[in-house]
Structure formats: C-alpha cells, structure tokens
Design brief:
Layout: H1 6-18, H2 33-49, H3 56-82, H4 98-105, H5 125-134, H6 141-151, H7 155-168, H8 174-194, H9 197-201, H10 210-244, H11 246-252, H12 257-269, H13 281-293, H14 295-304, H15 310-318, E1 325-326, H16 328-337, H17 343-346, E2 348-356, E3 362-364, E4 369-371, E5 383-391, E6 397-405, H18 410-415
Antiparallel strand pairs: 1-6, 2-5, 3-4, 5-6
Helix pairs in contact: 13-14, 13-15
Protein name: MADF domain-containing protein
InterPro entries: MADF-dom, TNP-like_RNaseH_N
Biased composition (Polar residues): 150-163
C-alpha cells in the first residue's frame, strides 16, 4: 500500500468523516453491511480520481491504522496530564489530521483502557465507579483543558493544603478506613464465589473455554468452506464461458470422444498445480487404456502432457472388485456389446491355458486377508488357469475367468 503524505491523510480523514456509517456506532446504518460497503467504494472512487490507487481492503487497513494512531495520541495526552506537568508541558499532537478526527470521533463512545482503583487508596467506591465510567469515553476538548488547569497548580499551594489537612487527620484516624477497605475486599470476594460462573470467567481473559474453542474452529471451517465454494463457482463460470465459446465448440466438434477428453485435460488441468489436479472417471479410464498399451510410452507422455498419475489409476482399479472364478460382470458387458451384431460375428471359441507365477503371500489391508493360496486354500499358488473366448470371424479376445492352482493336472481339471 503506498505511503500517504500528511495532506493526503487529512483528506482521507475528511472523506471518512462524511461517511458516518463507518464510525458512528449509535446510528442504525452502522450495522448495515451494504451501506458500509457502498461508503467504502465511494471513498475509493474519490481517491482514484485524485490519482491515489487503493483497494477496499487497503482502505479498511488505513482506517484501522488511523484509529490506532489516534488512540495512541490520546494515551500520550492523558499520561502527560497525570504526571503533573504544567499547561505548557502537556503533550500536544503534531499530526495535522488529529484535530480533524478528534472533532467527530470524541462524540462516539470508544472502549478505552480503564485506570486501576488501587493507584489511589484515598478514593472511595463512588469515586472509583465514576472514574471507570468516564474512562470508557474519549476526553472532550473542554475536559482536557479543565484537567490541564487543575494539574498545573503551583507546588507551594499543594504543600499548604497538605499542612492544613495534617492538623485535622491523626495517625489513628486511618485505622477505620483500612478496616472499611478490608470489609469491601471481603465482600467482593464473597460475591465472586457466590455469583454466576460468567462473572468469574470474565476476569480470566487469557483462558478460553471448550465452547469458545469449538466456536472458533467452526468459524474457521465455515470460512474455509466459503473460500472453497467461491473458487468452485469461479471455475464453473470459466468452464461455462469456455464451453459456450464458438471457437472452442468449432475446434472440438469433429474430434472423437477420446481426443476431446484429452484436449479438455490439457486446457483445464495444465494451469493447476500437480497436486491440485482432479480428473473425472472418464479421463482416468482414458489414461488407463493408454497405460495398459505401453507403460513406458505412457511414462514419456506423462512428462510432456497433463495426464493422470499411475498411482491414481491403480487406486481406481482397486475399487473394482474382481474375484477368481467366473466373472458375471464381464458376461453382462459382453452381452451388451454383441447385442447389435450378427450371429456370425458372435461366433467364438473357448480357450484355456495355465501360466506359471511366483509363489508369494500378500496381505490385503483393505479386506484383512492373506492372498497367495490356491482355490482350496491349502497350498501356495504357483500357477493361474485362465479361460478366454476368441472370435472366429471377428478378431477379439476377452478373458472370462481365472483360477489359482498348484500344478493342476488333467485328472484334477476334469474333476473340477
């Protein structure tokens, strides 16, 4: 954010004063979010016309910084008055916009740091309550001048007053006052112990209850979900704009479905980070078909194009539950595929063969079982028996069943 000069800060304060809904908490429009946003936009437009480029967020931060500086200057004034300095030695702010801001902010109650009641033991309960109530509001100019005159009395007058009061107050007269103070302290402690739990928790400002922590976590979760929804909405709008673009439609209308999916992956996923890419099921199936043709070739294509990783495709395959023996899902899919074909194209032959595999035991964490045994579960599987259909007229092959075996012979095969 650019650093503004004092003259520009003064103009900013003047614009801030005109928008009363931004600083006056006593009016109904202070709680109207739309009106506050329109006031901030109005300030932004005026500053932009003067050549000062500021966003809404920067304007909010500027208002926050100005109010913080204003409160710091008020604190310096109060400290200089408490120190007993004369009128000429009271701190006067050198910021040119302080008086402009003080003229309208002083009328609005602000939360200020309260003074400690133990600083002056001679003050009674009424004086303490009065001082606390006055400290909630910023000092008005007239009050500042009166306090300055009172604190600037000569030291000789103060000493004369002390001599006069010492004649009427004896050392023994302090004992009832101390006893009364102890009685007040004990009554306060009793009220704290017998009062509601909320009054005691208000004293411990640094300790958060479980309910407060739960509320904070829920608020952060709501904020995260809102940001996620905003991002998804923006992505959806961009996708709709691109899909409605006549050039994109003209470019992809004559493509095959795999070519269209491949083009969409390059257009929508390339601008994202590798860990932030999310592929649809059709896109993963396309990548899986390419991977099955040649894993080495897929590895080369993965370096130059935006494609799904091998781990993501393996996770997709893990979701498909295929067990040994006859697979009914494959038969249903074959039935749908050959429904529109001629009878001659459906002719096929059944082929089966046995392949050797390395005996090993594998623990399936998802199913919580040990795998690597034959179908009876008594021996280690060292072969797999595969049944396949092969087209007679058309060239197609499709495995339909498999079994894990341990050196299966002809007699056992006929027995099965």
């Amino acid at each position: 954010m650019p650093k503004l000069a004092d003259e520009i800060n003064l103009k900013f304060v003047q614009l801030y004063r005109e928008e009363e809904c931004l600083w006056n908490a006593s009016i109904p429009s202070y709680k109207d979010k739309q009106m506050r946003d329109s006031s901030l936009e109005k300030i932004r437009d005026i500053l932009n016309k003067d050549g000062i480029e500021m966003s809404i967020k920067e304007i909010k931060n500027k208002i926050k910084n100005l109010r913080a500086t204003y409160c710091q200057e008020l604190t310096k004034i109060e400290k200089s008055e408490r120190s007993g300095a004369g009128t000429a030695e009271v701190y006067k702010p050198k910021i040119i916009w302080f008086e402009e801001m003080h003229n309208f902010i002083k009328k609005v109650p602000m939360k200020r740091k309260t003074s400690n009641n133990q600083d002056s033991p001679n003050n009674n309960k009424d004086d303490n309550s009065a001082s606390n109530s006055q400290s909630l509001e910023p000092p008005v100019a007239e009050n500042l001048s009166e306090k300055t005159v009172e604190m600037s009395q000569p030291a000789s007058e103060m000493s004369s007053i002390q001599d006069k009061t010492s004649k009427f107050i004896s050392p023994g007269s302090w004992i009832p006052a101390i006893t009364q103070q102890e009685t007040n302290i004990s009554s306060v402690s009793e009220s704290l112990s017998t009062g509601p739990s909320t009054s005691f928790t208000g004293i411990k400002k640094g300790v958060k209850s479980l309910k407060d922590k739960k509320i904070c976590s829920l608020r952060s979760e709501i904020s995260r979900l809102r940001k996620k929804g905003t991002n998804l909405k923006a992505k959806l709008n961009n996708a709709e704009k691109l899909s409605k673009n006549p050039l994109f439609y003209k470019f992809t209308k004559d493509m095959t479905r795999p070519a269209r999916l491949f083009t969409q992956m390059q257009v929508f996923q390339t601008s994202k980070k590798p860990k932030g890419r999310r592929y649809t099921t059709d896109e993963k199936i396309l990548c899986l078909s390419m991977y099955k043709k040649s894993p080495k070739c897929y590895g080369v294509l993965y370096k130059f194009f935006t494609l799904s990783s091998a781990k993501a495709m393996k996770r997709l395959l893990a979701k498909i539950k295929i067990k040994s023996s006859i697979n009914t899902i494959l038969f249903e899919q074959i039935k749908k595929t050959v429904a529109d074909k001629d009878i001659s194209d459906r002719l096929c032959s059944l082929i089966f063969d046995e392949m050797a595999i390395t005996p090993q035991i594998h623990y399936n964490t998802q199913k919580d079982v040990l795998q690597g045994f034959d179908e009876e579960g008594k021996k280690f599987a060292n072969h797999v028996l595969v049944f396949m259909i092969k087209g007679i007229k058309e060239n197609f092959k499709q495995p339909i069943a498999y079994y894990f075996t341990n050196c299966l012979n002809t007699y056992e095969l006929k027995k099965k």
